[in-house]
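hey
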């Protein structure tokens, strides 16, 4: 038995490393267990998000967007750029450099804040003990007053499309292609599938996305989702809804995908197939039978509103618990748990967690959609404003999409904030702040926004909630 800690965090992703740093800042003796290992056998921090998720995918999205804009849209702006080419090797090196810099930064933050990193695979035992098995198979047991489980999630595999190296890959494999495939198939038109499909489509691949559901982005406000779908199809993404994959095979260096849609049985032939049907919590072999921590039938850990498990002193955050699998949600839960361990009483406002799809146009939202409010029988009012009427968007050659604000019919309090368009990931933060402070649409309407700016569309949408938009025709009032 080695030293006892106030807090041991299992997992150094965006939930775990943030929880560890915050706990250490609050004066708690803290260790963080992480099993991720580099090719050199050294511990790598940052989890899925920094290593094979959020950060590398955004690097590729940004590079591919700049390439596409240079190749296809500079000429209409008076910029002549001929024979534009993409160097996939340099692109991947750039991605790897960003990842290395950020993961190394976490190690420095651990050192600066006094967090002890422990390399190995963690397992929760009874009485807040954590067993850590290193790469050589040696197990060491540590004691803690509190344990925070932050082990994240893994891509879901499906029987009709088992992974086959170099041909059928998951979201991690799709970030490692060494050349631009001629044809790419994607199973799943969710956040990950759309982002990865967008990367390779911009670089020149013919991309077909198969989605089993009959509604495009059902969790997104459908006015915004339909607007985004129109833009994606215009860009060349072939998105097929109600397409259920039934099988796949690799023959002569090609992937054959069998699926059923409204027209019957179909076959798709591609060079690469990306399986992006979601993620599952990483809880296999994580808990001893007597740990006192309980799982549901899908492998998620049971927690209360403050992320306490059924075992005293054991907490769980991020992708292994209920709620959206989002890095920033995990980070907020990590901070909340660390502060509660230190005796404070914070609470995460789960109604104000934004979601983003980093396509072009970006799609972002916070709060409820119009469809949700209709199903709940809530009375509401809506204001929208298109980027096509925004001078800054037009000047940036990015005038697609809209801002949509939904407010309570009686109180005018903002219930939902939805954006499809340029910098939606940044603009949605204005909605998050407004909702966090309980703002009304009138509050935003009475706020002065800089001109010219993309954010003026937020101002106009807020004005439009009460039929007061200036730069677009308002609804005709009933007489």
């Amino acid at each position: 038995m080695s030293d006892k800690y106030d807090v041991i965090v299992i997992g150094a992703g965006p939930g775990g490393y943030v929880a560890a740093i915050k706990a250490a800042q609050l004066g708690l003796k803290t260790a963080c267990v992480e099993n991720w290992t580099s090719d050199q056998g050294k511990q790598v921090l940052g989890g899925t998000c920094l290593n094979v998720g959020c950060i590398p995918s955004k690097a590729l999205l940004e590079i591919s967007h700049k390439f596409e804009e240079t190749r296809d849209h500079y000429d209409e702006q008076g910029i002549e750029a001929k024979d534009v080419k993409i160097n996939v090797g340099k692109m991947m090196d750039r991605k790897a450099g960003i990842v290395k810099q950020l993961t190394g930064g976490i190690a420095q933050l651990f050192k600066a804040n006094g967090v002890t990193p422990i390399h190995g695979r963690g397992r929760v035992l009874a009485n807040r003990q954590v067993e850590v098995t290193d790469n050589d198979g040696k197990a060491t047991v540590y004691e803690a007053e509190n344990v925070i489980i932050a082990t994240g999630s893994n891509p879901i595999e499906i029987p009709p499309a088992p992974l086959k190296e170099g041909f059928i890959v998951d979201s991690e494999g799709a970030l490692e292609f060494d050349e631009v495939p001629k044809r790419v198939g994607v199973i799943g038109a969710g956040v990950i599938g759309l982002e990865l499909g967008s990367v390779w489509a911009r670089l020149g691949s013919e991309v077909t996305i198969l989605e089993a559901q009959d509604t495009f982005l059902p969790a997104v406000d459908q006015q915004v989702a339909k607007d985004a779908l129109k833009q994606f199809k215009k860009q060349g993404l072939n998105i097929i809804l109600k397409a259920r994959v039934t099988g796949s095979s690799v023959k002569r260096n090609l992937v054959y995908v069998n699926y059923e849609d409204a027209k019957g049985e179909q076959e798709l032939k591609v060079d690469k197939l990306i399986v992006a049907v979601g993620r599952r919590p990483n809880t296999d072999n994580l808990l001893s039978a007597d740990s006192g921590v309980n799982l549901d039938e899908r492998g998620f850990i049971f927690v209360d509103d403050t992320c306490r498990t059924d075992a005293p002193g054991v907490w769980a955050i991020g992708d292994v618990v209920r709620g959206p699998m989002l890095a920033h949600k995990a980070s907020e839960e990590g901070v909340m748990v660390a502060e509660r361990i230190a005796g404070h009483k914070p609470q995460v406002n789960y109604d104000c967690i934004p979601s983003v799809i980093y396509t072009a146009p970006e799609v972002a939202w916070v709060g409820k959609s119009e469809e949700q409010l209709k199903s709940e029988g809530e009375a509401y009012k809506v204001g929208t404003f298109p980027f096509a009427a925004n001078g800054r968007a037009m000047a940036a050659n990015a005038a697609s999409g809209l801002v949509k604000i939904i407010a309570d019919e009686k109180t005018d309090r903002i219930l939902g904030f939805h954006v499809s368009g340029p910098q939606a990931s940044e603009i949605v933060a204005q909605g998050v702040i407004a909702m966090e402070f309980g703002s009304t649409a009138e509050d935003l309407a009475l706020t002065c926004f800089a001109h010219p700016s993309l954010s003026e569309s937020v101002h106009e949408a807020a004005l439009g909630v009460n039929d007061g938009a200036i730069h677009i025709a308002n609804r005709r009032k009933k007489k």
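DSSP finds twelve helices and 22 strands in the chain. The mean pLDDT is 97.
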